[in-house]
Specification:
The longest helix has 41 residues. The strands form 2 sheets. The protein has an 8-stranded antiparallel sheet with strand order 2-3-12-11-9-8-5-4, with helices on both faces. Strands 1-6-7-10 form a 4-stranded antiparallel sheet, with no helix packed on it. The protein has 6 helices and 12 strands. By secondary structure, it is an alpha+beta fold.
Length: 261
């Protein structure tokens, strides 16, 4: 499902040295459109801090096509992300079987992400750990809590409800994690394709944050290029995870249906 982003996706950060080079690392298995609470512990990720989405907010993100970038240099605000069409062909598929498969949120959740990097934190809400991002002196190992459910039309939906950037700032950097104000929004929808041979839909994410003064001086093309690289990294990771997981999980679903028939 998170074939384009998601999830998630993800993030914008800035260093005191205003350097945009970065590296990514896989997250270790040990372990998105108004303000989302930062989660400092699993206890804080409960329903009383959850984000509720409006239809307009979902439509805004899903209505975009490709990468998104918005910079308010005077206020130091920046947003970036990506929205993409999803289609994954499934072997021996038909519309009825795909709808039945999509009706099980746990099966789909385990299809869209590395099983070692996802866990259910409450009914229909799953915590997705993202890859670690390093911006020279700032490291993030974020996770996003995503609600997943099937609506009355048989479409599978997802939307982020909380997010923790899990920022680690090295000594000597003149900015705190709170000053970065990082938020992430993820929404998506999936349904059987018209030909009944695939699952298709759309997924979108938007990350926003505060640019510290040193980084506000960087040319816009430099910021865009750096953030575009992050978008592609997240998208490629999510796409690969979904394609592999969905095909494997759907095959297991079909086999279990034959056995129980």
């Amino acid at each position: 499902m998170l074939r384009s982003a998601s999830l998630l996706f993800t993030l914008l950060v800035a260093s005191h040295h205003a350097v945009v080079a970065f590296t990514t690392h896989p997250a270790r298995s040990s372990y998105a459109v108004r303000s989302r609470p930062f989660l400092s512990s699993e206890r804080n990720a409960r329903s009383n801090s959850r984000k509720s989405w409006t239809a307009r907010e979902r439509a805004t993100i899903l209505g975009r096509d490709g990468e998104y970038f918005k910079l308010d240099r005077m206020r130091g605000k920046i947003e970036f992300g990506s929205s993409s069409i999803i289609r994954t062909n499934l072997d021996n598929a038909d519309e009825a079987s795909i709808r039945q498969w999509l009706s099980d949120d746990e099966q789909i959740a385990m299809s869209i992400w590395d099983p070692k990097l996802i866990k259910e934190v409450e009914p229909q809400v799953y915590r997705l750990k993202l890859m670690t991002l390093m911006f020279v002196t700032i490291q993030l190992s974020p996770h996003v809590d995503v609600k997943m459910w099937t609506d009355e039309k048989g479409s599978f939906n997802l939307e982020s409800v909380a997010f923790d950037p899990n920022i680690q700032i090295l000594p000597g950097v003149g900015v705190s994690s709170d000053q970065l104000g990082i938020l992430i929004d993820v929404v998506g929808e999936l349904s059987p394709s018209k030909d009944g041979r695939a699952v298709e839909g759309k997924i979108g994410f938007v990350t926003s944050g505060e640019l510290p003064p040193p980084m506000r001086l960087l040319p816009e093309p430099v910021l865009k290029a750096s953030l575009s690289t992050i978008n592609r990294t997240i998208t490629n990771f999510a796409t690969s995870s979904f394609q592999k997981g969905a095909r494997k999980n759907y095959g297991q679903f079909l086999r279990s249906e034959k056995v129980s028939a």
